[in-house]
Amino acid sequence: MNADALTREALAAFAQAKRQAFEAELRTLVEIPSVSSDPDRAADIRRCAEAAVDLFRRHGGEATLLETEGNPLVLGRFDLDPALPTLTVYNHMDVQPANEPEWTTEPFRMEIAGDTYRGRGTTDDKGPALSAFFGALAAREAGVPLNVHFLWELEEEIGSPSFRGGLERHKDLLGTQAIVVSDTVWLTRGKPSTPAGLRGLKGFRLTLETASHDLHSGVVGGAARNPLAELMGVVAAMVDGHTGKVKIPHFYRKVVKPSRKELKEWAHSGFSVETFMADHEIHSLRTGNPLKVMKRIWGRPTMEVHGVVGGYTGPGIKSAVPPRAEVKMSCRLVPDMDEASTFDLIRTFLATHYPDVQLHEEHGLAPFKGHVSGPYAEAVKDAYAFAFGAPCRFTREGGSIGAVKTMEDVLGCEVYFLGLSLPSHGYHAPNENYDWEQASGGIAAFARYFQVVSGF
């Protein structure tokens, strides 16, 4: 195969010939439980990084472990000539925990059912990473004049705490013309979409303690403070649970609303409320208007309650007043919001109205405003259309990838997105899966992308 012969038919044949190899490599990676949030999995994180290094070397590339203050980075390289341009593909090898009771298979034992690959990490983000990897093998076999590097992280699921330091420490090894990320989700199958921005995140916890132990509600009820009930009131004062509107003064002051051009692109993206609800198994929404749903998940900030801790949770009722309670919360942020000023607004509100509620800061990620024009953006659109036979729309991603803005800031190059996952693949959910249609299409899309950008 040569560069002129990188046709859809040739790449489909290449992918089919490599299918068994793809599935074997995916099984190897998925069956390593690289859960970055679990300290007991530190050895598995290291094992996953070493398996990734071995993957590159077995397929004719070079690979290095780049040590950081936390988990290592993996730098894989398919270099042809230092004089040629270099493109870097970013993915992450760490995964979410898999302790949900809804799993129907062992989460860290990959199951193949027809064209579906089931297991934790299959779609987030080991499957897409391997699609890009095999796309690079196709481009190399065809002699595409481009140095292709891969930067694989092992802390993305915990907010990338060591990523910036790792990039700064190893910056001399990471020079590149541009970066493409394959860790995003389409709207639905058959309709490619790519983010023109990501929401940021700011996590925090509220705690309140009013006694040293459980109290008998018959003896002290009515006089004793109930921290669970009080924190519920605090949350209600911060955010309207029915509409989602945040009540913190000035919370929305830095929000940049989506432009008319963006809204027009969203309206033609193929987004369907019914498909959205079915893909995510949602029973009801706050609105049924498609454009309003898109605005809420892509263009508006949020304040969410993730968990309430405290009191008796066993069978029946224990008529006690709990001594302490905790609420776990976070905000999704949009341009031009930032973590520090958002957290300051929350701190000021609580100090003014609920001074004995303790506010605990958790990790945060900055929002990211993406790029929708220029040669690399056009190359993304070309790659999707070539591989999947459908036009790509620029939308936004409601989630966060902390590494994206960090790479632009530290490495001084622009970041683009060529994601392959679908809502039905179950990001962060039980029974996570990936499928051959997206995997093989991704191989073709990346091979095409490498071919196009080699001419820049």
UniProtKB/TrEMBL annotation:
One record GO biological process: proteolysis
InterPro entries linked to this entry: Cyt/Met_Dipeptidase, Peptidase_M20, Peptidase_M20_dimer
Swiss-Prot/TrEMBL keywords: Hydrolase, Metal-binding, Protease
Transmembrane segments: none
A Pfam short name: M20_dimer
PANTHER family in the record: BETA-ALA-HIS DIPEPTIDASE, SUCCINYL-DIAMINOPIMELATE DESUCCINYLASE
Protein name: Peptidase
